Amino acid sequence: MSIDQEIITAYNDGMEDYAFNLIIRHYSTRLYNHIRKLVPSHEDCDDILQNTFIKVWKYLPEFRSESSLFTWIYRIATNEALTFLKRERLRNIISLGSKEAEVASRIESDPYFNGNQAQLKLHKAIASLPPKQRIVFSLKYFEELKYEEIAEITGGSIGSLKASYHIAYTKILNLLEKE
Question: Is 156 left (phi over 0), alpha (psi -120 to 50) or beta?
Answer without folding.
Answer: beta
